[in-house]
Design a protein that fits this description.
Largest sheet: none
Distance between the termini: 58 Å
CATH class of the domain at 1-39: Alpha Beta
Shape: elongated
Number of helices: 2
CATH superfamily of the domain at 1-39: Erythroid Transcription Factor GATA-1, subunit A
Order of helices and strands: HH
Number of strands: 0
Radius of gyration: 20 Å
Strand content: under 5%
Helix content: 25-40%
Structural class: mainly alpha
CATH topology of the domain at 1-39: Erythroid Transcription Factor GATA-1, Chain A
């Protein structure tokens, strides 16, 4: 591993310049899958702090 470079965040192997910050396309895909599967999240406001969308009559009837 080159001096000062961080290891792959998925497996810890040295990074590859073509797939930086990962060591391989496989590790990049694993990371993407984790984001898309909502295993990683960026903290934001609590749901109760967000404005609620207006409910339509159709939504009320379906309950």
């Amino acid at each position: 591993m080159s001096k000062g470079l961080a290891p792959c965040p998925i497996c810890g192997k040295p990074t590859n310049p073509k797939t930086k910050p990962f060591c391989s396309p496989r590790c990049a895909d694993i990371d993407l899958g984790r984001w898309l599967g909502e295993r990683y999240v960026i903290p934001g406001p609590e749901d109760e702090d967000l404005p609620r969308p207006p409910q339509s009559d159709e939504e009320d009837r379906s309950r």
